Amino acid sequence: MHCHHMIPALLLSTAPAAHAWGVLGHSTVAYVAQHYVTPSTANFVQAILGTAPDYMANVSSWPDTYRRTPEGEWSTQLHWIDANDAPPESCEVEYTRDCRPRAAKSTEAQLLDAIRFLIHFAGDIHQPLHTEALEEGGNGINITWDGKTANLHAIWDTQIPVKAAAGKNASEWAEEMVGLIENGKYNASGWLDATSLDDIKGTAMSWANDANDYVCTDVLPDGREAIEAEGVDLAGAYFEKHGEVTKELIARAGYRLGSFLNLIVDGPANGHWSDN
Ligand SMILES: [Zn+2]
């Protein structure tokens, strides 16, 4: 219900009650972004976050901690969008229907908070169930994962990415994704088409709609009944068919985050950005 923006960060995302992408997802997004930032962007961001090798990854889950503190409670609803669409027949995020603009708070517009939010929300907005209203983004859909009862939202946050990473840590998984982008296995050429500092809302909505498409094609391709049915374990055929998309979505989130930071720091006319 809440699509919110704050300068300079794009603050818009999704994630009912449970979590966001789990820690693996958020860290991996950050490592992919770290690969794609220009030296000037890296300097800019490191001046705010410090120069540790994992300078972006180590703050990537901070907003999930912050939202659980009294002073951070206001930010809770920034983690998701409740798209009132109708999966699997129709998937779409509409700004006027699904988002409620909120005034930016100058006290929160500190650069440190803004950058940590941007790193985190670039991840959240690429988790399909953070852009879906149905049962609070799947939190209310009970399924079976690996023989145990779980909810659909949680497995898309955590279990599916962890299984798709096949034992790799965030840094190793990010490296694999960068390889897939660089060798053209992932076609990144269109990933920045709708990304612009002149239209933050449009940028956010295009990223959200991108992720939301997967609710129809991969999260609930045959409707909720098919995955709630007795005897269906999503760690089996469902994962084999749909689990890999988390990898591409996380790669896309990281690539977009790195490029968006370059856009903020270097401007649209510079190097890496204009090559894409
Ligand atoms: Zn989140």
From TrEMBL:
Residues 1-20 form the signal peptide. One of its GO terms (biological process) is DNA catabolic process. The keyword Acetylation does not apply. Gene3D superfamilies: P1 Nuclease. GO terms for molecular function: endonuclease activity; hydrolase activity, acting on ester bonds; metal ion binding; nucleic acid binding. It comes from the Eukaryota. Pfam families: S1-P1_nuclease. InterPro entries: PLipase_C/P1_nuclease_dom_sf, S1/P1nuclease. Keywords: Disulfide bond, Endonuclease, Glycoprotein, Hydrolase, Metal-binding, Nuclease, Signal. Belongs to the nuclease type I family. This is Nuclease S1.
